[in-house]
Amino acid sequence: MFSNLFRRFLKLLVRICFLCMMSSIHFVYADNVTNSSDPVLYNQFARWAIYQYQDAGQKICYTASTPVTADPVDGVRHGLNFLMVAPIGGVAGESYHVELAMDYPLDEQVMVSVEVVGKNAKGRIFSMIPQRNRAAFKNREDDRVLVNMMKMGRDLVVSAKSQRGTNTRYVYSLNGITDALNNIRVCQK
Description:
Residues 1-30 form the signal peptide. The protein is 25% helix and 35% strand.
């Protein structure tokens, strides 16, 4: 019973996070959320899951992952945090929107830093703008550059500050991201 409740909660949370992400890039849908289906797991590639749902008769697909490590370990309730990548305009392969969804409010005065690490990483640190419990880029070019770097990297390191003042650090594995992004095209057909 607990497993089913948790699964329903997780599905709802993923849907809410994705809808929040889509609203931040100014998508407008003809139908409201009540006419949408719940996201379902479409496929899994290592640490990256592809979710699909119907909205206004259109298939919407995106990929998401959860961190493999969260710091600090002691005394902090991190909750469920997601790194999500969705095609802009619903067309996979052209351009993507990257967004972090945290389970706690962020300090909106402190930028969220993101860095791809690994043998092929270029060492660039990106800054995302925090808003409530989310963080995204202001400049769409940063989305494109980050996604390309994610395809070549091993891990993505996120450093953020909570509204309470706690500095947090998350490591997301990039194992499977390239396959997941390529599979979004199939998911949308």
